[in-house]
Amino acid sequence: MNAPTTLDHLLPELDLAQLDALEEEAIFILRETAAAFERPALLFSGGKDSCVVLHLAQKAFKLAGSKKTRLPFPLLHVDTGHNFPEVIEFRDRIVAELGEQLIVAHLEDSMARGTVRLASPEESRNGHQSVTLMEAVDEHRFDVLIGGARRDEEKARAKERILSHRDSFGQWQPKNQRPELWTLFNTRLKPGEHMRSFPISNWTELDVWLYIQRERIELPNLYYTHRRDVVRRRGLLVPVTAVTPPAPRETVEQVAVRFRTVGDMTCTCPVESLAASAAEVVGETLTVTVSERGATRMDDRTSEASMERRKKEGYF
Amino acid sequence: MAHALREAPAAVARRPLRFLTAGSVDDGKSTLIGRLLFDSRAILADQLDALEAKAGGGQPIDLALLTDGLEAEREQGITIDVAYRYFATRERKFIIADAPGHEQYTRNMVTAAAGSDAAVVLVDATKLELDDGTGLDRSAAPLQLLPQTRRHALLARLLRVPHIVFAVNKLDVVADPRAAFARVRAALIAFAAEAGFEPAGIVPISALHGDNVSRPSTIADYDGPTLLALLEQLPSESAVDGTALVPVQYVGAQAGDGVGHRSRVLWGRVARGTVAVGAELVVFPSGETARVAELHAAGGRVASVGADRSVGVVLDRQLDVSRGDWLATPGAVAPTARFRATLAWLDSEPAIVGRKYWLRHGNRWLQGRITAIDSRLDITTLTAHAADALAVNDIGDVVVETQQPLPLESFASDRVAGALLVVDPATHRTSGTLLVSEALP
Questions:
Q1: Alpha-carbon dihedral sign for residues A174, A177, A179, A184
Q2: Which of B81, B184, B86 is nearest to B142 (CA)?
Q3: Strands of A194-197's sheet, edge to edge?
Q4: Is the separation of the CB atoms in A84 and A262 below 8 Å?
């Protein structure tokens, strides 16, 4: 049980060189995006997928050994105001270390403007992020947003293009997608429209962790095992926070957990885990029996089609 | 320190294999994909729970339900767009481009085939006229393949998918699997020969029960590799031969030192050949030449880079180069502004002769027009019929003129320099793709 976990032990046959092919593709898409559009932004939340995309962007645009150059686009984060504080701290530290420019769009500003109105103060802010995101797109006239979404996350995302067109309402039209042929991307836009660019479309959760391990990419520490107050609710471990207090009659337990995805506190749940390093997470991922979103996202449980519906509305 | 330069890894030996699956409704395509995901444990407990809930207590789960993605699809019970699925074995990572089989969705099959390393074409043995009901032995008579089988394979061939595999499904429910497979196999080999390709494999399977998908089975007395074993071993092809050709994708930050002057880095993915430090390159279209002073890859400086890898080129003198230009071995490209091509039309508005369209060749956007439509291809037989119009899902022979000369190659010899995208200038929809056949004077 306490024997050291090594990748060689876990993956005697799986050829890590396959990561090179995924990296090549992702960097190619990042350069294509920077070259073909005038005002890109890279969505950076401090979550693991966006950390991987930010790392890939460093490799795509900075010559090895050169610290002087900056990415050819700013980073953008939609802050619901309900993010885990340690993730926000991590986000700001990484941005400062790399010398990049970060634009933060606050959902609370949309609430103040009246463009986001919650049905009740307890309602999750997560589903309203698309409004704030589109307001940031308008304000900064971004014509492409680079994100860390992956096709293996969910059935609706399996049909997503690498460069995905959004109309002037930010809407995705799944029945009217542009055919994507080789790397001859159709990058043409009309005023007001924009594109979403997904460099790690073809990566799986396992690929992401293998890459984090290989490249030693730093993540917020809640991706690794830590003790946290949780309540058990409908088979999920719900973290106890200021905005997600326990219900009456629920028992608060302290459990060793890690997060597999990190988003708004009101809809992100950890899993029980003792994995303290990327290699140990890889080990767990290889033997995992529940899908990433199924284990950790309360919002996707509402209906099987909920992701598709939210994507149509402009959600990432 | 020249000795510190390392060779960039050759095109990764075991790249993920991207393959498309083609089949008609009820051929068992979704079941096959579900079976591959299930056998490779890419299906997780909560997804299985959802399937078991749908199947109801005690009923076998329907593997096909794993792959229906969008709400609209579930309403219609068909796949309406290309969906991508992922699984890995100990040998290889796989990406499935799941192409719908409906005739009206040729555009999706073209999308799935473009860029795939292999195509798995499903043949439903129960739909073939294996027995004419007369009781007479017809085993010597040629078997007629279904039109969709021919269409799927010919589309994959047209788009130069490197490996085409036939999976003959549902042999578990025909009367004499051995005789049936032998006849289907003979018909497929004859058809492939006629179409000019050699199948990478013909495997009898039962997607439902898993025979010869990942588990070897003696169904139809077959003793070859399973479908999965076959796919694990397929080579990932790279256009490594010939003269170097690099479309410039992105002009990057200056490389400050080591060259004696400040020079920009020209990034692009090598389309064919190998680029090496010291080699002479000509810039298209300017025609100016320079030598390679430095080569950069994502991990640092390198001495040479082969096909399918991105490279950052620093030239030994300052030239005006921008995105859309090409770097090539001198004498390797012959620019042309008029050419014959196969046009696959994907737009609901028909192709209009004489209208200006946006074209994308490599990384260059330019205008061009179709000056003549010569014929429409019957994709079931590959015979050409005289035509003067092409509508959605049509494929035909056309003549094209472009606003400026391009370094074109035939699509059969070069998938990068031989393909163009056609975009409607009013709607910006992707209207079609041109596969170059030959340059015209």
A1: negative
A2: B184
A3: A102-106, A75-79, A40-43, A144-146, A194-197, A163-166
A4: yes
Report pTM: 0.90
Q: Note whether B155 and B106 are within 8 A (CB).
A: yes
Q: Which residues of A touch B267 (CB under 8 A)?
A: 31
What is the Cα–Cα distance from B364 to B426, expressed in whole angstroms?
19
Report residue B125 as tokens: 């043995």
Using a CB-CB cut-off of 8 Å, the residues of chain A touching B86 are 151-152, 202, 204
Q: Which helix (H) or strand (E) holds B252?
A: strand B250-255
Interchain contact B108–A (C-beta under 8 A): yes
Give chain A's domains with CATH numbers. 7-206+304-312 (3.40.50.620), 220-299 (no CATH)
- Of A298, A300, A294, nearest to A315 by C-alpha is A300
Angstroms from A167 CA to nearest CA on chain B: 12
Question: Of the candidates A64, A155, A177, which has its C-beta nearest B300's C-beta?
Answer: A64
Q: From chain A, pick out residues whose CB is under 8 angstroms from the CB of B71.
A: 305, 308-309
Does any CB of chain A come closer than 8 Å to the CB of residue B45? yes
Contact B421, B376 (CB under 8 A): no
**Hey, what are A155's tokens?**
């059935």
User: Is B12–A18 a contact, with Cβ atoms under 8 angstroms apart?
Assistant: yes
In tens, the pLDDT along B121-161 reads 999 999 887 765 555 555 556 788 988 899 899 999 999 99
CA dist B8 → A47, B259, B269 (Å) = 31, 21, 13
B336 in Cβ contact with B440 (< 8 Å):
yes
Question: What is the SS3 assignment for B386?
Answer: strand
Whether the CB-CB separation of A45 and B43 falls below 8 Å is answered with: no
Give φ, ψ of A82 to 5 degrees: -120, 30
Question: Mean pLDDT, to the nearest integer, of A138-164?
Answer: 90
A65 contacts on B by Cβ (under 8 Å): 300
For the CA atoms of A247, A249, A253, A257, the dihedral, rounded to the nearest 10 degrees, stands at: -40
**Contact partners, residue B311, CB within 8 Å, separation at least 6:** B8, B246, B267, B268, B269, B270, B275, B295, B296, B297, B302, B305
| A174 with B47: Cβ contact below 8 A | no
CA atoms of A62 and B353, how far apart (whole Å)? 46
Among the partner-chain residues B249, B253, B298, the one whose CB lies closest to the CB of A59 is B298
Q: Which residues of chain B are within 8 Å of residue A31 when distances are taken between CB atoms?
A: 249-250, 252, 267, 310
Sign of the alpha-carbon dihedral angle for A180, A185, A186, A187: positive
Closest residue to B45, CB basis, from A179, A189, A289: A289
| Higher per-residue confidence, A158 vs A253 | A253
Helix B147-158 crosses helix B177-195 at what angle (to 10 degrees)? 40
ipTM confidence: 0.89
Name, in order, each residue with C-beta under 8 angstroms of B436's C-beta and a sequence gap of 6 or more: B339, B340, B341, B408, B409, B410, B411, B417, B418, B419, B420
Helix, strand, coil percent content, chain B, rounded in steps of 5? 20, 35, 45
For residues A129 and A315, give the distance between their C-alpha atoms in angstroms, rounded to a whole number.
7
Please indicate if any CB of chain A lies within 8 Å of the CB of B343: no
Scan for tokens 């290699």, then name that residue.
A279
> Could you give the domains of chain B?
17-233 (3.40.50.300), 240-328 (2.40.30.10), 336-439 (2.40.30.10)
The nearest alpha carbon in chain B to A215 belongs to B299
What confidence tens digit (pLDDT) does each residue in B405-429 have? 999 999 998 999 999 999 999 999 9
Contact B421 A181 (CB under 8 A): yes
Given CB atoms, is B102 within the 8 Å cutoff of chain A?
Answer: no
User: Kindly report the CA angle at B42 between B39 and B48, in degrees rounded to 5?
Assistant: 85
In this complex, the residue of A27, A201, A206 whose CB is nearest that of residue B298 is: A27
In the sheet that holds B93-98, the strands lie side by side as B83-88, B93-98, B17-22, B118-124, B163-169, B201-204
